[in-house]
Amino acid sequence: MRVAVLQAHAAPGQVGENLARIAGAARRAAAAGADLLVTPELFTTGYAPALVPGILRETSPEDIVRRLAEVAASCGVALVASAPERASDGHLFICAHLLDGSGALLATYRKTHLYGPGEAAVFTPGPGELPIVELHGVRIGLLICYDVEFPEAVRGVAMRGADLVCAPTALMEPFGVVARTLPPARALESQVYIAYANHCGREGDVDLCGSSIIAGPDGAVLASAAAAGEELLFADIDLELLRASRAANPYLRDRRPDVYARWEHAAREP
After folding, report:
1. Of residues 95, 145, 166, 209, which has the active-site annotation?
2. In a designed cystine with 38, which of 30, 80, 214, 257 is the match (CB 3.0 to 4.6 A)?
3. pLDDT tens, 74-103?
């Protein structure tokens, strides 16, 4: 499977414009032979959490997903795209949706680790569900941005059988080191591919730091973007390489969860 990662600058509050940018990237990705396009966190609305409630008074989360499905179907490429979701009790979640090339919604993941007071003021943390979906023979898991900074999150997706972890991201300065170092490290230690799609440019008073990346299970950087500027990255998910890497680096097999539980218990003791 060939995966594409979009790094781009979203227009805050301009859902139609942002969806058009995703559609343009999807057409380019399909023309280059990609089966799946991964886009940044909340790219459909623009990242700024404080703007989201107002945006949703004009455009429903259901309408955003419907329009994403139209993009996927018209381009014939699967999408991982991030949008807000409103629960029946009114709580808002930051979500990543996986749609196949016919536009069918295959999975929704709700961000587990909210970043900072801005996100916490608007959104509710997800319950930690980790859906895994097989697409073109590749088992795909979903995380969002700050989740990748917790080894337990990537390891949890890997333990559920993922081959590829797709991570829509809104990483800002001065944390560019996260994008450059953690996706390859997480890919190696959990023996998965990671497709990490970040915004670039300035949104409000925030500089989003680009540096999107696709990393392999051997820790190799398969494709990477600069800190600034829009780019479309490509890499192939090679299941033979994945099997060989897991044989050579048996981290998942050699885990000692019984010991780790004792360590955590000891850490909580006075």
Report:
1. 145
2. 80
3. 999 999 999 999 999 999 999 999 999 999
